[in-house]
Structures are given as C-alpha cells and as structure tokens.
Amino acid sequence: MLCTYAKLDEKKLAALRELEIQHNVRVVALACHDVRPAKLTKAQEEAIKKAEQELGVVLLAYEA
Q1: Is the pLDDT of residue 15 over 90?
Q2: Which of 3, 18, 38, 40 has a CA positioned 20 to 30 A from the CA of residue 51?
Q3: How far is it, in rounded angstroms, from Cα 15 to Cα 9?
C-alpha cells in the first residue's frame, strides 16, 4: 500500500482546517493505493539506492 497526499477540494480543505482549529492539532489527509513492488534486477536496485543517496530521499519502485 502506498499513501500520498490527498487532493482536497475547497470544501473538504475548509473542513480539515476547522478540525485542526477545534482540536489545536495538525492533520494530514492521505489517499492510499494498492501497489505492487517492482521486481528489480540487481543493477536497477543499485541505481535506485545510488539515487536515494544522491537525492536524500526514499524511492519506491512499483509496477506500472
């Protein structure tokens, strides 16, 4: 499962902001999707690890 930031319309965003104000917290809206990890070759895996180190991020390869 992969979760990304949810796309909220103005009405939903306003409701989320109101919830944050009422409870004095920050809330993140996520949308989750079923994905299958890609089956990588050793070379692909190494390239992704190198890119992670260079970019300072975590990368996830999944089937298209």
Answers
A1: yes
A2: 3
A3: 10
